Amino acid sequence: MADFVKGLLLSIFSQKCYDEYFLNYNFFDVPCFKSTLSKALGIGIIAGSILVKVPQILKILGSKSAEGINVYGVYLELFAITANFSYSYVMNFPFSAWGEGTFLAIQTAIIAALVLHYGGNSLKAATFLAVYVGLVSTLVSGYTPKDVLWSMQAINVPIIVIAKAIQIITNYKNGSTGQLSAVTCALLFGGSIARIFTSIQETGDSIIILTYCVSTATNAALVLQLFWYWNVKTTTTKNKKKKKRT
């Protein structure tokens, strides 16, 4: 039992920090505090990412509509997520530093498929999922050169800006955030802020850190739009009410 507990603790603490805390009883070691906080935040982000986009998926399924969600923005976001976790996996960064990418990728791919499906193209949705699974398998197989993965990660910065800008502009033109989930956007914003700290602590990779800084700024813009358009009804709802009256 003692070995099991120790093994569990070592999943959060490094061996050095375990010794400092539980053998030397030094609870004021600053490097260990930062390392442990980063690891705990990483695990928390991964746990939260398992369900972070589920509210968005349920909202689309519940309304049987993906109105207001720009599929090209979703494609670009999916590319950014995929490039990030593929690069991190191949570079052998700690799972706690990038693990949420796997869950975010799955959920984002489902959202893209739903947008296509409710847009009237179910065959395209199924084909998209099949192609995406094949692409991810190739990227993490070890056969894709690291230079290619690094380049994909490097262009994440402009891609994230473009992806979010597409959605932000779509919201502005519609005068509404449509079927965007406030819960999902808020969680992504909070997670990206925490990832700046964990990336500094666990990877030290400047391109990863820059990516999360940009992601935080763009997620903040979407959250601000959600508040701005909070009481605005979607165009579809208004049209339905007009039809009922006539």
Automatic annotation (TrEMBL):
Membrane topology: Multi-pass membrane protein
This protein's GO CC annotations: membrane
Gene3D superfamilies: 1.20.1280.290
Principal location listed in the UniProt entry: membrane
Keywords noted in UniProt: Membrane, Repeat, Transmembrane, Transmembrane helix, Transport
Transmembrane segments: 40-58, 70-89, 95-118, 125-143, 149-166, 178-197, 209-232
Similarity-based family: Belongs to the MPDU1 (TC 2.A.43.3) family.
PANTHER family: MANNOSE-P-DOLICHOL UTILIZATION DEFECT 1 LEC35 -RELATED, MANNOSE-P-DOLICHOL UTILIZATION DEFECT 1 PROTEIN
Identification of the protein by name: Mannose-P-dolichol utilization defect 1 protein homolog
Organism expressing this protein natively: Papilio xuthus (Asian swallowtail butterfly)
